[in-house]
Write a structure and sequence with these properties.
two-stranded antiparallel sheet; about 625 residues; about 60% helix; disordered N terminus; elongated; 11 strands; mainly alpha
């Protein structure tokens, strides 16, 4: 009976393939022999896992290694011109597929290894995965591949400046110190492997993820159509069907070789099991005309009606957008896997409700119009899965809406951070948008299962702009604890700057010191660190911090202005040299002069502050009102 589940009428219509008895003299052979190549392929896939582990360990121990050998890395080559090991591997794999067919997937993919292992475990439990067949959803991998590797270049073609090339200048990124930067964290990687391995195999068949989700397989499948290398047949074939029964790529081998003289299905991964189990040794791998040169198709039994196909497309698109990047955690491949499983479950639930008979594997879900215990369990699991997906869509909507608001606020950071309440710089429309954005982020945080760590600084910034500086500082503290690397450094910096405006200089000093420890080149943090020291009475130390900043980057108007005022107050010099350097790099913008004046006034440097207040008014007389003149 079909794994995908169907009513009695459909069961009778899609009866499993009957294997005829093969006569050989007086001896009859009906038993399918064990594939001799399956162990070799298992060995190759196990070795692949070992090499991947060695690659990771080598980076972990030495701190530098060859960049990840993942096809997804090709996106960085197309978008940024970064030549990496993933791009080279993907290019060579496509070229090899154009000659030998789609063998890289079957013999060299870690996700295929995972699916094969999960299928093996299910068989040990007495459950044989069988294919879910769709006419339309099978094109998802191609669509995903075009979105990942073609759409960015198309978009760049229409949006880039006229003098920029379509693909940026190539740069060497074959060696990296950030091996894990493009991979999800372990807390995401484990459920990712579970969904793309066990779940897709259980519901969709042995190569469920490859068939309905893998974008790389989408390109490999297209290349396979042009490849001369194919599984081909001799006249010794007697249509026993052993090849089809053994194929783990869900290919109807016996029908294709009968009709075309070769396997034309681009899902064929050249596992060679069909060749190995053929009782007459009628199948072989050979070269000839590609499948693109033949026409016609074989009859297939599909798991869905046409109305269900169309409904499935809608459900898939909605599910995919619901879970992709929710909490900024779920990667694209995992979202594709979740979405296709959600689609399957939704359509099976509809069958469960509308049909009188339905089965799944060896379980009777519904018989005589009555739901059985297994049916209630299936329905409960499906409702839970679909409900979590719908909940993710709710959270994703509010996260996206909050992020859109954040992107619309254009007030410069320096101007906003010049005082504890930046509300005077906002228009009425900005205030309304900021309030809406805060509401969206609060809703996502209140009802979400996880904290969206990358969104915390955005939420904190909107809180600060709304006048709630204390709440903003608390959120940035949470973000700094949860983040790593540059994100942590920036959260510490913004928190320290806000605490400086609030007069909490000791806390600010600690936070800014953390920012500098994370990112030694973050000059804005050094400028604010000097402010904390100055306000705490450690003026000599503050002077040294500012001077150290301009020694590393002389073009810092704020640090130079601070040094000019500090040198004058410390009585060591009149500060004219630093003032001249500050004037050289200060933009001729009234808002920048006003911001600088506020910062200097905060430090008690009245004379240089007045100078910049006057300059701002000269450039834009409307600032006279702000100064009360």
């Amino acid at each position: 009976m079909s794994q995908s589940g169907c009513d009695n009428k459909e069961v009778r219509k899609t009866k499993s393939i009957e294997l005829p008895v093969i006569g050989n003299g007086s001896m009859q052979r009906t038993e399918i022999r064990t594939s001799r190549t399956s162990l070799w392929r298992a060995f190759a896939l196990i070795m692949l896992q070992i090499l991947m582990a060695i690659h990771f360990i080598q980076w972990w121990m030495m701190g530098t290694t060859v960049s990840p050998i993942e096809p997804s890395e090709t996106m960085y080559t197309l978008q940024n011109g970064a030549i990496n090991a993933g791009f080279i591997f993907f290019t060579l794999a496509i070229l090899a597929t154009l000659v030998f067919g789609r063998f890289v997937c079957g013999w060299g993919c870690h996700i295929v290894a995972l699916q094969d292992f999960c299928a093996w475990l299910l068989k040990k439990a007495g459950l044989v995965p069988k294919p879910f067949r769709s006419r339309v959803l099978v094109y998802i991998p191609v669509a995903a591949a075009l979105y990942m590797f073609v759409w960015p270049s198309v978009l760049r073609y229409f949006t880039k400046p006229a003098n920029e090339p379509l693909i940026p200048q190539f740069t060497n990124h074959l060696i990296t110190t950030e091996f894990w930067a493009t991979f999800p964290p372990l807390a995401v990687a484990i459920p990712f492997l579970f969904v793309c391995g066990f779940v897709t195999v259980y519901f969709l068949g042995s190569k469920g993820f490859c068939t309905y989700a893998c974008p790389y397989g989408g390109f490999f499948g297209l290349a396979d159509k042009l490849a001369p290398g194919k599984i081909r047949v001799t006249d010794a074939c007697n249509q026993c069907g052993h090849c089809t029964a053994t194929c783990t790529s869900n290919v109807i081998v016996h029908a294709e070789v009968k009709r075309f003289g070769m396997v034309v299905d681009p899902g064929c991964m050249k596992c060679m099991d069909c060749v190995s189990v053929c009782p007459n040794d009628a199948l072989y791998f050979g070269f000839g005309k590609p499948s693109a040169a033949v026409s016609g198709k074989i009859e297939r039994n599909y798991s869905l009606t046409w109305p269900e196909e169309m409904a499935g497309v809608v459900i898939f698109i909605g599910s995919y957008h619901a879970v992709w990047d929710v909490y900024q955690l779920v990667p694209m491949l995992m979202a594709l896997g979740i979405a296709i499983v959600t689609t399957f479950l939704a359509l099976r639930c509809w069958r469960l409700i509308t049909s009188t008979e339905l089965s799944f594997y060896r379980f009777n879900l519904k018989a005589g119009g009555t739901l059985k215990a297994a049916g209630w369990a299936f329905l409960l699991f499906s409702i839970l899965w679909i409900g979590v997906t719908a909940h993710s869509g709710f959270i994703r909507y509010h996260e996206s809406a909050g992020n859109r608001v954040f992107e619309t606020v254009r007030i410069p950071d320096e101007l906003a951070l010049a005082q504890s309440d930046p509300v005077q710089w906002l228009s009425q429309a900005d205030k309304s948008n900021i309030g809406e954005g805060i509401s969206h982020f609060e809703t996502a945080g209140k009802f979400g299962f996880f904290v969206n760590v990358p969104s915390l600084p955005k939420y904190a910034w909107l809180q600060f702009l709304s006048g709630n500086a204390d709440r903003s500082a608390k959120l940035l503290d949470l973000a700094a604890v949860a983040q790593e690397g540059e994100g942590r450094a920036l959260s510490h910096y913004y928190r320290g700057a806000i605490l400086n405006r609030l007069g909490r200089y000791d806390e600010a000093r600690t936070s800014l010191n953390e920012a500098i420890q994370e990112r030694d080149d973050l000059m804005a943090a050094r400028e604010e660190f000097g402010v904390s020291l100055w306000q705490l009475g450690e003026k000599r130390e503050a002077f040294d911090v500012w001077r150290g900043a301009i020694n590393r980057n002389p073009a810092l108007p704020i640090a130079n202005s601070f040094l000019a005022g500090a040198e004058s107050q410390l009585g060591e010099n009149d500060g004219s040299a630093y003032e001249q350097q500050a004037d050289r790099y200060t933009p001729n913008d009234p808002y920048f002069h006003w911001m600088l004046a506020l910062r200097l006034e905060e430090l008690g440097m009245k004379e240089p502050a007045e100078k910049h207040f006057r300059r701002a008014i000269e450039l834009d007389p409307r600032f006279r009102v702000r100064r009360g003149r």
